[in-house]
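Purpose: get a first structural picture of the assembly so the mutagenesis plan has something to point at.
Setup: two entries, given in the order below. No constraints added.
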Amino acid sequence: MKESNEDKILRSTFKTVELDKPGHNFTSNVMNKVHDIAATKLETKSLKIFGAKFWIIIFLFVALAAVLVILSLTGMQPESAINELLPSIDNGQVNEGYRSVLNEINRVPVSVAAILIASSTLIFFERFLSKRKIHS
Amino acid sequence: MQHDDLYYIDKVKNGDTRSFSYIVEKYKDIVFSVALKVLKNHDEAEEMAQESFIKAYNSLHTFRGKSKFSTWMYSITYNHCISQVRKKKYETGSLDNVQVADDPDNFGFEKFNDETRKKYLQSALKKLPEEDYTLLILFYYEDQSVGEISGVMNLSESNTKVKLHRARKKLYTILQETLKDEIHSLL
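Result (structure tokens, whole complex):
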């Protein structure tokens, strides 16, 4: 844009203009908010919603589920699969232990199982939500 | 040693939050002036100006330094204030009905001394509508290019040129009338 002489004078006069000024505490107010945001960001970074233990359990659970799915897809019976994978293990003892655990679980009444599952779910959600509250 | 904006922005990005105060100190007057012109209320303008800085801080990681920081900052401020105006349906365009004189460019602004020019320019700027004020402040006070202003105000470059030309004419008209009144009162 070509600048005329009048324009040059206008530009130089603009440089002398005093702009409106905000209040004295303006910068400190902004900086207080900025520090708050920075502190919250730092807290969010350091506090993980789930700890390492949680992820280890989830990983083991998923791994176990994956093994079961693979076995069922290949049509292998757990006993023969164990025999193939770990031939040195005494199969009979493992089966015995496995069955006794299942029998013990079978004896637990449905209502008790429901209470146990519901209370663990509630504890899980309580912990999850209380952690989320800290971040918000 | 004088550092530029990017030096402080990098420091803020690397976790030195206090360096952001340099940015606030440097730009607070112009950010507040634009907010005040758009909102016409001191308290709200201060609030909006503060929010603009907070927005800038929160989005600082997206600023790559391809454009000037000032352009980016004014863009946040202007758009934030305009959206606030739309939200609250403020009355704007206080003096959009300025009748542009036939030849407002030749009224002898240069004949007056610096102090008088400053005084009348300051008073004329108060009478300008917010869009014209922002255009002129960015162009003459902040030395922003037409391209940069078009980015701030979401206008095409050609539209910015036209609007800038009109804004200047409006300013000259107001100055001409004010100075004419002054001369009459002196005679």
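The mean pLDDT of chain A is 76.
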